[in-house]
């Protein structure tokens, strides 16, 4: 019903048995020894297809090597359960797209409401965790692709500071914005998974240490991040009260500078053309080698690849002039000023540890003809900055999950984990466990 997993791993059971034998022999690799993990299908796995949801890569051999983050998962004793479906090409192919659809994996649906979106582009990772297929999954984010499906599916989604998790072996959109990150049932699970993904130098579980936030100052972002969903606003106001009960000082009515749409697009458009060619060069002969070849493939297979929406973003990216282009340089500088300077100035001037806002609107009805109907989001500034975000479930609106998003400066991942864990613990003490999905149609 959910179609969260596009490629199961046929070796998962034998891998699990081998790891059980290691444990029985007294050899435990760490806290995630034997834990099943699902991996988004734009992350290289040497034993499984890696397609980005496209038929252009579906019939090609698997990549020659695991992505470094997958290698770290295996070394930590994780069982790769399979690959999760995604919005094709991580939702950076064309306008009017429907999150969760790919030509290779079909349409991923929200377990809480099968006629509503699972968000994207890490649709399968979020839906799989919500559906109970695995407690641990890996997503990727360029702009909202972890925190959006996390919010819509009622799970925890952590987008780390860009560069904290290695990008090697991830099919790219934007080297300045792309990162992989955990999608899990709980904040502590995301912390444990981030420890593995980053190589183990920092134990992020240490940040999960109770609910006392009396030494913390949190800025409340208002403006356009509120007002598009009355139910979401009400749940978020209640979340702010929870932070106050934990002792946090809230600094309210803050805002970030409005973003220019062109800057948001020009950076990934220019970086996609260059980065995708470098990635495709790592795949075996027979696979497309350039963005132009991918565009040609889609034109040759319109009924399969282009039935619902086009490839205007691919075509615009193909027309760009590379990373030396004055357009790219100007857009990148503007993005950094708006993103990094905006966030850091707000944090510094108000002596804040983090920022909080509503995450995303409740899941919208799936509409393959007209595309997504996103009412609002909160990921853009952090995307341009390459800064971390953490989405944690805050409640429901008409039975649909919603969340809050915590953000901060570069390297504040542990702080966000601490705040999210405290909030999660306090919310459960007050409201009980988050409701489980019923896998039915909804209004």
TrEMBL record:
Lineage: Bacteria, Bacillati, Actinomycetota, Actinomycetes, Propionibacteriales
Pfam families, alphabetized: Amidase
Alphabetized SUPFAM superfamilies for the sequence: Amidase signature (AS) enzymes (SSF75304)
Gene3D superfamilies per record: Amidase signature (AS) domain (3.90.1300.10)
Entries under InterPro entries matching the protein: Amidase_dom, AS_sf
Amidase domain mapped to chain residues: 5-416
Coiled coil: none
Protein known as: Amidase
Annotated NCBIfam families: PRK08137.1 (NF006006)
Biased amino acid composition, Basic and acidic residues: 17-28
Region of interest (Disordered), residue spans: 1-33
């Amino acid at each position: 019903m959910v179609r969260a997993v596009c490629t199961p791993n046929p070796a998962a059971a034998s891998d699990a048995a081998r790891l059980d034998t290691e444990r029985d022999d007294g050899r435990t690799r760490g806290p995630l020894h034997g834990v099943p993990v699902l991996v988004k299908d734009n992350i290289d796995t040497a034993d499984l297809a890696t397609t980005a949801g496209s038929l252009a890569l579906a019939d090609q051999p698997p990549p020659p090597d695991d992505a470094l983050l997958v290698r770290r998962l295996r070394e930590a004793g994780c069982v790769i359960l399979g690959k999760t479906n995604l919005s094709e090409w991580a939702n950076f192919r064309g306008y009017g797209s429907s999150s969760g659809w790919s030509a290779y994996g079909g349409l991923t649906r929200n377990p809480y409401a099968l006629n509503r979106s699972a968000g994207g582009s890490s649709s399968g990772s979020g839906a799989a965790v919500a559906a109970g297929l695995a407690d641990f999954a890996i997503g990727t984010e360029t702009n909202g692709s972890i925190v959006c499906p996390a919010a819509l599916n009622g799970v925890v989604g952590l987008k780390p500071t860009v560069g904290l998790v290695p990008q090697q072996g991830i099919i790219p959109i934007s080297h300045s914005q792309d990162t992989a990150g955990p999608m899990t049932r709980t904040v502590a699970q995301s912390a444990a998974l981030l420890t593995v993904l980053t190589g183990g130098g920092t134990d992020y579980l240490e940040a999960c240490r109770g609910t006392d936030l009396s030494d913390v100052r949190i800025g409340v972002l208002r403006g356009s991040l509120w007002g598009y969903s009355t139910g979401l606003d009400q749940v978020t106001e209640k979340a702010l009260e929870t932070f106050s009960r934990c002792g946090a000082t809230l600094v309210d009515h803050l805002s970030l500078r409005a973003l220019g749409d062109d800057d948001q697009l020009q950076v990934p458009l220019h970086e996609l053309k260059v980065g995708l060619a470098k990635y495709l060069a790592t795949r075996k002969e027979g696979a497309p080698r350039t963005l132009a070849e991918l565009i040609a493939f889609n034109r040759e297979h319109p009924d399969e690849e282009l039935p619902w929406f086009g490839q205007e973003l691919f075509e615009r990216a193909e027309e760009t002039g590379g990373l030396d282009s004055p357009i790219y340089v100007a857009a990148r500088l503007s993005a950094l000023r708006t993103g990094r300077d905006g966030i850091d100035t707000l944090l510094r001037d108000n002596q804040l540890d983090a920022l909080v806002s509503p995450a995303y609107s409740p899941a919208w009805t799936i509409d393959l003809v007209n595309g997504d109907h996103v009412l609002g989001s909160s990921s853009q500034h952090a995307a341009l900055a390459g800064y971390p975000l953490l989405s944690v479930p805050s409640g429901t609106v008409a039975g649909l999950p919603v969340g809050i998003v915590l953000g901060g400066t570069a390297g504040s991942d542990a702080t966000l984990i601490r705040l999210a864990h405290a909030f999660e613990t306090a919310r459960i003490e007050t409201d009980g466990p988050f409701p489980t999905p019923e896998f039915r149609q909804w209004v």
